[in-house]
Amino acid sequence: xxxxxxxxxxxxxxxxxxxxxxxxxxxxxxxxxxxxxxxxxxxxxxxxxxxxxxxxxxxxxxxxxxxxxxxxxxxxxxxxxxxxxxxxxxxxxxxxxxxxxxxxxxxxxxxxxxxxxxxxxxxxxxxxxxxxxxxxxxxxxxxxxxxxxxxxxxxxxxxxxxxxxxxxxxxxxxxxxxxxxxxxxxxxxxxxxxxxxxxxxxxxxxxxxxxxxxxxxxxxx
Length: 221
Description:
single chain; about 220 residues; alpha+beta; six-stranded antiparallel barrel; four-stranded antiparallel beta sheet; 10 strands; about 30% strand
């Protein structure tokens, strides 16, 4: 019954107001409002998953298609989920199935700040309290390759002649021009500056552990 359209990028606010005629300057990051759409429910939110400012529209198909047509006519560049994936990855935003799984805890994913261990109770609390007390054995980190080869999901991370982890997401970064990836590695190889290798087909390419944010976020708070 509904469609959704994301308008993302440094010019998102200006575009939504000038092209779609929707007031959005008043929206703070991660807030939304209901639109007066000829008595048809529609929502505009200042959300997205790209690292830049952006908005998402929710409404019936006629409304979403009309907005799409206006944006295309104004020269806005259309893109799909593959592009979105590179953009969320560049700023260290996790994706379920890659940096988040049912076998990977928030602590291992670097998202411990979402799990308030002082809360009275929540699903998984006992496991997280135990894991924190015992210490992590693995962790999601960033890795920058010293070559232009592209690390892909599932490729092995090697060091000291053994496999120490695997790539969760990897690309040649559009914004930085560097070959980078996020990877789940053994804790002994998670420290910044640690040299590791990425097994790409039959060759091991050297890399170094870096911060997961390869590109700085630019949200309007």
